[in-house]
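A quick word before the example. In earlier lectures we treated sequence and structure as two separate objects. From today on, think of them as two lines of the same record. Here is DUF2961 family protein written that way.
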Amino acid sequence: MAHPIPLRPEMALISSAVTRSISPENPTGAPGAGGGATEGTGADAARDLGRGWKVSPSIEVPAGTTACLADIDGPGTVQHIWITTHPSNWRSLLLRMHWDGDAEPAVEVPLGDFFGQGWGEFAQLSSQVVAVNPHGGLNCYWQMPFRSGARITLENLGADPAIVYFQITYALAPVPEQAGYLHAQWRRDNPLPEGCTHTLVDDVTGSGHYVGTYLAWGVNSNGWWGEGEVKFYLDDDRELPTICGTGTEDYFGGAWNFDVPGHGYTAFTTPYLGLHQIVRPDGGYRSQQRFGMYRWHLPDPIRFSRALRVDVQALGWRSGHRYLQLQDDIASVAWFYLDRTSTSRPPTPDADHLEVT
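And the structure line, produced from the sequence above:
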């Protein structure tokens, strides 16, 4: 007797949830309201065709202004975001997300870094929750539940206007009581002060679980740079953490300096972790080597019930086979789910602090 083919329940289960999608062609996500614009960035190209023919495929965000990409009444869950703009805007556009009417954002991250593109140039990334495809198609599948509302904005901190294409798909349906709110925080040390560690998150209070790390690491010294440990201080941890790894490349799933004999640093991208970007000096004006790495703690979330702090050491080697404390350019994004809509976060960065130099 043949056995039924196993299916993931969410693929075949009929649901009463309502699917909606916001884009410049349907800025409210309302049913039956897509493609009705008569003015927009594509109006000239569609002048022979008229309404319904890609009249408004994108928006312009003037310098110094904030654009509201989505303002949604809940309950519901954002399921997919696709967005693209010129790579020169990836560090100067600040992405924010507010849940349930909270004036404080749960997400405040440069657009490029949120998608693992912190160096302002394209790097292919193929993973479970983030996919970046030629040439600059930025996709994420982080589940973003909200109960009464969601607001997603982009602030242009740059000196020039930015043209942005985007589509935000979401489901309107009740949210489980135990569902947390997605948070993402960006920090940068440039350079990291001597003898210090780079903080990914600090002073987070509440119950939740840590789900992702991205590092944009610019090396300011010769030699290997990734001996430092990633440490998770959970709940009542003070001096010593509960979770302590064995090295930076180990945390991101690699080994032995990411160095394949005869090939040197070797990029890789997998569903949950990768070293997807290696920016090498060009013999001209480009500075030292720069790297992009990610790890998604989806099969292995790091759970906390009261508090969370995470940092990473910056260690290389010096003479006598001794560790060298590094002063590198390190930027990070940390993702976590929390039982509240806002928590302690770093100061909002300005354009100078964001700039790739």
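Notice the following. The chain has a mean pLDDT of 96. We will return to this example when we discuss secondary structure assignment.
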